[in-house]
Amino acid sequence: MESLYDTPTISSATLNEEFVRIVAAADAEELDQMLQVFHSAIVCVSQWRNTFALAACLPGDILLLVFEHALPDRDTRMLRSLSRVCRWWRSIILHAPLLWRKALNLADRSAWFSEVLRRTCAVPLEVFFDVAEDYTGYAIPNLTAVMIDNLWRCASLHIEGYGDDIEEIVSSRTRIDRVPLLRWLLIRNISCSVPSTPDGEAGIPDSFLSVLAPQLTSLHLEGCTFNWDIVHTRLAPRSPLLSSLFIRSFHIQSAATVAQLLSVLELLPNLKDLSLPNSFVSGETDGNVPFRKVLLSQLTSLAFESSTVAGAIFLAALELPSLAKLEAAVDVGQVSTNVRQFMEGVHLATCKMAHLPLLHICYGHRILIFQSSHYHRFPRLRVTFMNWSLHSPPISDTRCTDLIRGIADVALLRSTREVKVSLPFSFEQCLALDTWTYFLGHLKLISLISFGAHIPILLLRTLFLDAYHSHEGLQAQSQLLPSLEQVAMPSIPELEVLIDILAEARSWVGTPFAISAISRMHPRRTGPPIEVVRELMLDWLTNSVVDGIPGDSVWFVDDEITDSDDELDELLDEVDSDSE
Fold it and tell me: pTM for the full model?
């Protein structure tokens, strides 16, 4: 292997002999001059050669689009690397304020942040602050400087941090009272993620909410305290384009009354998306006098969390002709009339929605959910009742009856084709005798019934008695579910016997249905023979008094250790995935 200091041997096929003799005869100084000339020549040739490269031939506007697509948000390192490729690229980058706006990073050193901010020229700013990304400690001072000197340029302002930091930022003494370009404002206080911190909410000063933002289209306030009167008198009437509103409070002291909330909403006629988790409560006078209807003609999506009392008053006061999705989570409380009033509100709010063919009712762990959707689509109606306790033995409580009757009264559910029910016997024991008759009599188009982990056996008994009484001449004809074609059930021997009896009774009156079993892992049955079980089932079905579960079968006993846990978890996971 040749060393760098060996006498060079150059093939004449590579360089001509005359050039080799000149090099060999040259001294060190002459060789240095040759190297300098050769280096300059190589650079010159390389530059000319690079002009034939595709990247160098692309027009500047095309390159700008490529750079913007490749550039990560809030990162100037790639910009600096790209600017070193060639003078053409550097010229494009240095004169592209939109690229520098995308690369603007509050966590950069103050001097470099100021330089990047200068290079954005006068384009609208998209400012993003997340305390989790502030790894340098420069973000808050830089953002404060933006709030003081450049708030007028902000088109998007995202502030996510601890309460003290947020208060320091939004309390900055800005020199303007108008933000003409601001379209999107988000303030999220992560101090209040755990409700056990009652003093963790960030206070937003009146002066900040009073700044005029005529182009504001989206407002998101989470874990913040503010003056609802200022929102009513200053922010709402001067934000005519606001179409998306999200307000979440973590403590009851920060929530608005229904009256305060409605006074704000009636000033926002262009709302399309409204989300209000724990943001309003029932005031002392909210339920005394009916509110004037608030028309939100463009609202398509409504989500809220509150109590049944506040939710009922709120829904009853709204007129929503364009509503396409309703999601509500309410705390049931102890007053038996709350559920009935709330379900009346659901009916009023959704009366203009398109009919939905799928209905799912599920209970578990003090949570009751009913939701409805189109085939293979996300739910359009979902109501979650929290803290729904079942008493054992059952006491005088009309909540269960009010709910089932209320579901049947919701107009958009009248065209339900498929229903899945998973309700324990302890829930059904709280129902009035004619509740399932009322429910099935209103949802006449059901063609498929399926059951979850908890089998609503009183619903099955209602269907049996309807067919049995018609067959025995006790009523003119079968009245319930004339369109029923199929029943899907867990593969449980006792349940199969019960469904077979029901199918036989329906066939007597000309309304038979098919049976399909859902395979599940259950221990081998060790009880009495099937013939004995059938007799027990018939006795229970035809007995005028229902004292308990047929045959005391373990499969119909409310048991916390069942796959209802998984069933409810799946439903809640679906809820979470839809809200993302």
Answer: 0.83
